[in-house]
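ok trying again, last paste got cut off:
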Amino acid sequence: VQLVESGGGLVQPGGSLKLSCVGSGFPFSGWVMAWFRQLPGKERELVATAGAAGMTSYADSMKGRCTISRDNSKNTVDLQIDSLKSEDTAVYYCSAQLRSWTQRYWGQGTQVTVSW
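nice, full thing came through this time. structure:
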């Protein structure tokens, strides 16, 4: 299983960013894809999930500000984040998991910094 994120960087408060993740080495369409983030000095937390059947869910703190989408034909899962705040500064990770009780796989992470 390999997950490669891209799209991080420096963005001004109020701006938008789109993160992308490409998966390989596993049957992408049947797995649950998710985005997590890890703020400085904090534990990794769930941002959004895109299930194999297409259902999506979001952390309460991100509802209304982000959209997760997957393209099974391209083995990609994207995370669009709008109205970025300094508190969104974190390393964002893509993850893949077959079932809730099976191993979760991680990408290397991509840094998002929200600052003037």
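cool. The chain has no helices and eleven strands. The radius of gyration is 13 Å.
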